[in-house]
Amino acid sequence: MNMHRMNMQLHRRIRVTVAVFLFLLAPLVAPGQQTLDLRAALNAANAANLELRVARQQRALALAGLTTARQFPNPTLGFTAARDTPHEGVSLDLPIELGGKRGKRIAVAQEEQRSTEIDIAVLGQQIRRRTREAFFRSLAARAQTLQAKATLDLSRRVHDLVQQRFEAGAVAQLEVLQAEVELARSTADYETTAQLQRAADVTLAALLNRSISGTLPIDGRLDDVPQAASLETLTEQAMRTNADLQKSAQDLKTQERVLELAKTQKIPNLDLSVGADFNSPPDFQTGAKGGLAISIPLFYRGQGEVALSSARMELLRLTIASQQTSVSAQVASAYFDYLAKARQAQQYREPIVPQTARMEQMAEDSYQAGKTNVLTLLDAQRRLNEIQKAYLDALFAAQSSFATLEEAVGAPLD
């Protein structure tokens, strides 16, 4: 009966230890403090990130190119004065574009504007991945800091226990020295993780364009690893939304418009001239004149531009075909990497962390009963600390892998 009661107490203490560690995965936030969850952080980065704001300024350049494409050729006003008759004259030359050149220039500028929007969207996807990773890195750093603090408290408790047993004459001074060394190591680990937490917060604050001097309150759970759709579904979606494919497809559309514009160069422009001559006695005082000129496309008909655009279009078609295979491989690689890391995190949660906590508790009970020395206890505690750190690393790796998968697909997945 006593052995059964001891086992019940041991299991209860182990469950408490594991529950406390899992609680550390949730950040502590002061009451009344406005917090940022993952979705709010992603929205804040999309709205305020400085890299994105700089990229969005490129829209002004695209609009300027569209304004330039819409312009008409300027007319030329001329005046002549001569000793011969007629003594003076004025003329207005008006170039007229034929073959729809202006409309095709506008079409090229519009496609270039769409390319700019795609470039901004691609950068937005990169910022989303970086923000997602920085958010969970900050959560992981905070959990590691709290876990290091818990380890430090445990080392202090062991040190006090060993000191009490030494003063009672139950152990040698060597065990006291060993406990002091372990306490010093735990203190150094805690101080280091606290600084790493600060560094992670600064990275996230910079992505959100927030102050890096204050504390950034965030709310989320590191162990809340999202679920991904099937590989087939993700691959089909990537064919429509992957950044590289979208960019190449848009480049192909732009080049098609450039080719259409190049083909119009074989259609010559028309130069219309109107004017008047003055002071030509005795024939006339004022006489109207007009003219019409057109260039003959005998040598230059835009052959070079047409050939260059055609070659670029063929290159882009081959590039898209190659990218489709590459994107499929990237999505599959990221998908299986995500599955492996999510599974690893699950294995740490059950059964590795609970079993290691159970062994640590058994080692502590055994030491208190005088059945083992302090090295066995310290080794068990060190192993538990390492396993808990590895669990946090596995959780962050799973979150980071999901962010990579999301970027490879080119669209939000949760």
CATH structural class: Mainly Alpha
- What does the oligomeric state look like here? single chain
Helix-strand topology string: HHHHEEHHHHEEHH
Radius of gyration: 37 Å
The main sheet orders its strands as 1-2-3-4
Helix content: 55-70%
Task: Give your account of this protein's structure.
With 414 residues, the chain is an alpha+beta fold. It has one domain: Up-down Bundle (Outer membrane efflux proteins (OEP)). It is 70% helix and 9% strand. It is built from ten helices and four strands; from the N terminus they run ααααββααααββαα. Strands 1-2-3-4 form a four-stranded antiparallel β-sheet, with no helix packed on it. β3 and β4 form a beta hairpin. The longest helix has 67 residues. The radius of gyration is 37 Å and the shape is elongated. The N terminus is likely disordered.
Brief synopsis:
This protein is an alpha+beta fold and 414 residues long. It is built from ten helices and four strands; from the N terminus they run H-H-H-H-E-E-H-H-H-H-E-E-H-H.
Any key phrases for this structure?
single chain; 414 residues; alpha+beta; Outer membrane efflux proteins (OEP); four-stranded antiparallel sheet
